[in-house]
Specification:
Length: 434
C-alpha cells in the first residue's frame, strides 16, 4: 500500500488573513511587503491577488478593497481563475484582526521557507540516488549547502538602522576590540600606506601578465599575513598543494626554490629547510587545490571562515574557476564567478584576494605597463573589486634590464588613493619584498 503524499507546509488561513488585512488597512502593505513576495504564497489564487494589490499600490492607487481588486483582476483576465468575487468576499470575512498583518505575514513567510528547504533537499536526494561520476558528488553536496544557506539568508530582512544606533555600535567596537578593526595590514608598508590595508567583505584583484609573478607575490603576502596572526587560505587551481608549499618554505627558510624541491643539496640547506618547514607548519595557513568548481569553492570558503577563522582567502586564479552555468558566454561565466566571490566575502566577513589574467592586447603596446582596462573579461571584475592591483616586472619588457625589481600599481581603490609601490624581486626564492 503506497503512503499518501504529504502536502507541503502551508497555512491558507494565514494567507487569507494577510490579504484581508491589506483590504481593510491598506497601509499595512508597508509592513507586509518587507516580509513577503508573491511567490511566498502557497495558493496560486492568493499569489495573483497579492500581486494585483502590490501593482495597484505601487501605481499610486489607494482605498484598495475587494471590489477594486476584483476590477483589476477582471482587467487582467484573472478574476475567474481566483474564484471570482465570492472568493474575495470570503477573504474579507476571514480576518481576525487587521492590526496583526505582520504576524500573519511571518507565518506565511516561514511556511515558504520550509517549502524552499524541502525543495532543495528533494532535488538533492534525486541527484544522489541517480548514478553519477565520483567527481559530481562534491558538486551535488555543494549545491545542497548553498541552497540551504540561501533559505537561511532569506529570513534576514533587516530594517534600516538609524546612524544614532550604528555610530554608537561602531565606536564601541573600535574602542573595545582592536582585533575587529576593519583593515588588516598586508606587511608591505607601501601598500598599507596607500590603501590602509585589506578588509573583511572586500574583494582585491591582483592581475598580471603570464610569468610576472602573481603566485609568487601572493605566497609572499600570505606569509606576512600569517606571521602577523591572520589566518590565510590559498586556493590554488594552477599548482598543486606541494608546489605552493615549496614556495612558502623557500621564502621562510631563505633557501632557493630549486634546492627546496629536492630537499637541499648540503647539510646547512637541509637544516634550514627543516626549520622553514616547521615554521610554516606552525602558521595559520591553509591550502586547497581541489576541483575549481564555483559552488564547491563558495562552500569551502564559507566553511573555512566558520571553522578556521580565515581572514584572507587567495584564489589563484579567477579564470580557472568553473562557473555554475557553462552554457552562457564566457564573459557571463566570469561575471557569475566574480559576483559569487564578492557575495561570499561579504557574507563570511573575509577578504578575497583573487588573481586574474590580463588581456593579450597589452603585449602589442609599446608601453607594456598594465592598465585597469587590460583585465580579461574586465567588466564584472573591475566593478566587483574594491581594490585592483596590477603587478609588473619591467625587465620582462626591457632587454638587458636586471631582473631584481617590480611594481605594484594600485589602479583602483574604493577607500582611498591609487598609486605605485616599488618592490624587490628575488627570483631564487620567488619572493617579493619592499
Amino acid at each position: 500500500m503506497q503512503p499518501e503524499a504529504r502536502l507541503p507546509p502551508q497555512n491558507l488561513v494565514a494567507e487569507q488573513s494577510v490579504l484581508g488585512s491589506l483590504f481593510l488597512r491598506n497601509s499595512a502593505v508597508d509592513e507586509v511587503a518587507s516580509i513577503l513576495s508573491a511567490s511566498d504564497f502557497y495558493s496560486d489564487k492568493n499569489q495573483r491577488i497579492y500581486s494585483a494589490f502590490i501593482g495597484m499600490w505601487e501605481s499610486g492607487q489607494r482605498g484598495i478593497d475587494a471590489v477594486t481588486i476584483a476590477e483589476q483582476l477582471n482587467r487582467l483576465g484573472q478574476l475567474d481563475e481566483i474564484g471570482g468575487v465570492p472568493y474575495l468576499m470570503e477573504i474579507n470575512e476571514a480576518v481576525p484582526n487587521a492590526g496583526s498583518a505582520k504576524y500573519y505575514a511571518n507565518i506565511v513567510r516561514n511556511k515558504a521557507r520550509q517549502r524552499a528547504a524541502i525543495n532543495v533537499l528533494t532535488d538533492s536526494l534525486e541527484s544522489l540516488y541517480s548514478p553519477q561520476p565520483d567527481d559530481e558528488i562534491d558538486r551535488t553536496l555543494a549545491k545542497v549547502e548553498t541552497g540551504l544557506h540561501r533559505v537561511i539568508e532569506s529570513a534576514q530582512r533587516n530594517e534600516p538602522q538609524p546612524t544614532s544606533v550604528l555610530a554608537v555600535d561602531l565606536l564601541a567596537q573600535m574602542t573595545t576590540d582592536r582585533s575587529s578593526q576593519r583593515f588588516i595590514k598586508t606587511g608591505y608598508a607601501g601598500i598599507d600606506q596607500t590603501t590602509g590595508g585589506i578588509g573583511p567583505g572586500k574583494v582585491v584583484v591582483l592581475a598580471a601578465r603570464t610569468s610576472h609573478g602573481k603566485t609568487a607575490f601572493v605566497c609572499s603576502l600570505a606569509l606576512r599575513l600569517a606571521r602577523a596572526g591572520n589566518p590565510c587560505l590559498i586556493a590554488s587551481y594552477e599548482q598543486n598543494w606541494d608546489e605552493i608549499l615549496y614556495r612558502l618554505i623557500a621564502i621562510e627558510s631563505r633557501v632557493q626554490l630549486k634546492s627546496v624541491e629536492v630537499g637541499g643539496t648540503a647539510p646547512d640547506e637541509r637544516y634550514a629547510i627543516a626549520e622553514g618547514c616547521n615554521a610554516v607548519g606552525l602558521m595559520p595557513l591553509f591550502i586547497d587545490d581541489s576541483q575549481p568548481d564555483e559552488l564547491a569553492l563558495v562552500t569551502m570558503l564559507r566553511l573555512a571562515a566558520r571553522k578556521h577563522g580565515i581572514k584572507v582567502a587567495v584564489i589563484d586564479y579567477l579564470q580557472l574557476v568553473e562557473p555554475r552555468d557553462r552554457r552562457v558566454i564566457r564573459e557571463q561565466q566570469v561575471t557569475g564567478v566574480s559576483r559569487s566571490l564578492k557575495k561570499i566575502a561579504l557574507e563570511a566577513g573575509i577578504c578575497v584576494l583573487v588573481l586574474s589574467q590580463l588581456n593579450r592586447g597589452v603585449e602589442h603596446r609599446d608601453d607594456k605597463r598594465p592598465r585597469l582596462a587590460d583585465l580579461r573579461e574586465s567588466g564584472a571584475i573591475e566593478q566587483d573589486a574594491d581594490q585592483v592591483w596590477l603587478l609588473h616586472r619591467p625587465s620582462k619588457d626591457v632587454p638587458g634590464e636586471y631582473d631584481d625589481h617590480g611594481e605594484l600599481i594600485i589602479a583602483k581603490n574604493r577607500s582611498g588613493p591609487c598609486g605605485l609601490v616599488k618592490l624587490k624581486w628575488n627570483a631564487h626564492l620567488t619572493e617579493f619584498t619592499e
